Amino acid sequence: MTDVAKHLRLTHAGALKMIDAAVAKAGEIGVDMCISVVDDGGNLLAFVRMDGGKLLSIDSSFNKALTGVSGRVPSGGVPGDVEFKLAHATSGKLTNLKAGLPIYVEGIVIGGIGVGSGTGEQDLEVAKAGIAAIGAGYEP
Amino acid sequence: MTDVAKHLRLTHAGALKMIDAAVAKAGEIGVDMCISVVDDGGNLLAFVRMDGGKLLSIDSSFNKALTGVSGRVPSGGVPGDVEFKLAHATSGKLTNLKAGLPIYVEGIVIGGIGVGSGTGEQDLEVAKAGIAAIGAGYEP
Amino acid sequence: MTDVAKHLRLTHAGALKMIDAAVAKAGEIGVDMCISVVDDGGNLLAFVRMDGGKLLSIDSSFNKALTGVSGRVPSGGVPGDVEFKLAHATSGKLTNLKAGLPIYVEGIVIGGIGVGSGTGEQDLEVAKAGIAAIGAGYEP
Amino acid sequence: MTDVAKHLRLTHAGALKMIDAAVAKAGEIGVDMCISVVDDGGNLLAFVRMDGGKLLSIDSSFNKALTGVSGRVPSGGVPGDVEFKLAHATSGKLTNLKAGLPIYVEGIVIGGIGVGSGTGEQDLEVAKAGIAAIGAGYEP
């Protein structure tokens, strides 16, 4: 039946587990973050803005998550000559900021996580902690 | 592993098969239509506007498909006292027009189809033809 | 010091506690929900879409929370003759659907919670459970 | 009769033929794509997102098609010093990404095709295959 294919989906229990682990990691680092988890359709599954999370990181963390799930690779690797072309053509959704990761389980992308408010490296560390919490990866 | 659940997804081959069958049914009826097929995240998978399809049915067919996949029941059954409240609260995405159907396979909603440009009944007949084309249903 | 006044704010720990309690109540009722918690600036603090939560309730739950925090009373009480005037004038943000509650602590509104995917009564019960979890109220 | 002029328009049969040929070419290349076909009013005529097509290419493929039909030349040739001015002034609709082509028949632009998810060159090859399928061109 080629009209329909087997797939996997991220549950809300899984998404909240990711949020909790990301919050814990942000606490360790000492930088409050905004953390967005989306499903594989780019729709918000879970979110938290920590006390010191930046207001505008609500949006950027979401767009990072979208970018991760859409491109199926960590955000930040788009070549400089097309980076802003893509940002414009997607109303800013496709971002070349770091810390937007696809969530891979059994080789399938089931969602994305995006983190913002710290440096790119801090954000990325928190995003990775979220993914690790459910035993997933950010590569196939 | 409760973080991740088994799921099914509609392929583009399936979506195009739905489009073709819906176009054929619209031809039989003699009313050109706009036909939108979305995945279970409400993202467009396939679309066609037939020659006589109405310009504004591009949007309404999409919102019908969204409504079907979101509510998991055929569109049009929302009670009159909340219909416009829901339309406003969702920026018009939740529509109480007929002919937005969820696509059920093995009891799971894998997408939605929305059809517009005819009467509600004509639109619905075309939407049903799309669903029948892949052996799916619009009820669990 | 009349230029600046003492205030209270909802922490992310508090917001996540509300989310957890709301999820638990939704589980008891047996209807999966979308749950949005916003701060007193109407900005998202925490969110979860449960597995069976409706896609379009992402938006409506957020607008309910906005409506609760803005009006400082539970959503749903706007008279019919102004309901849609207000919806239009706020781009749909002010909704007269039930289950958007202000979060009161010591007589001060510190945020709002909005819940959607069930009936108005089910949504409201879940929103109330969220508020009870932090010992807050939805009235002054 | 100078008030009204003869015109040509792309039929839905033609648009679907373009989609099918583009899908076939994408299959040959081995990269799943999003493919948008618009009429000369920039309104969507036909669309498909292949199984591996990127979520954010739904938007970018549409904007590419718009850019092709608007400028009447292949997208990607705008000089660097005005590229983002144009992107801003059109809310991102005018994109300088490759693979947005006008559809020329008898020297008249009857629509546009936009393709995304691969490299610019891959996208362009797929767009050209779509145009070739109806014996049209992307130049006058």
Q: Structural class, from helix and strand content of chain A?
A: alpha+beta
* Main sheet makeup of chain A: 4 strands, antiparallel
- Judging by the overall fold, what is the CATH architecture of chain A? 2-Layer Sandwich
SSE order of chain A, as H and E? EHEEHHEEH
- Structural domain tally of chain A: 1
| Mean pLDDT over the residues of chain A | 97
User: What is the fold named in CATH at topology level of chain A?
Assistant: Beta-Lactamase
Q: What oligomeric assembly is this protein in?
A: homotetramer
Number of strands of chain A: 5
**Count of separate DSSP helical elements of chain A:** 4
C-alpha geometry of chain A: globular
Rg over CA atoms of chain A: 14 Å
Helical content band of chain A: 40-55%
- Unreliable sequence segments of chain A: none
The top-level CATH class of chain A is: Alpha Beta
Describe the model.
The structure is a homotetramer of 140-residue chains. The first copy, chain A, has 140 residues and is an alpha+beta fold. The first copy, chain A, has one domain: Haem-degrading domain (Beta-Lactamase, 2-Layer Sandwich), CATH 3.30.450. In chain A, 40% of the residues lie in helices and 24% in strands. The first copy, chain A, is built from four helices and five strands; from the N terminus they run βαββααββα. Chain A has helices spanning 12-29, 57-71, 80-89, 120-132, and strands at 4-10, 34-39, 44-49, 100-105, 108-116. The first copy, chain A, has a four-stranded antiparallel β-sheet. In chain A, helix 1 packs across helix 4 (120-132). The two termini of chain A are 25 Å apart. The model of chain A has no long low-confidence stretch (mean pLDDT 97). Strand 3 (44-49) of chain A pairs antiparallel with strand 2 (44-49) of chain C.
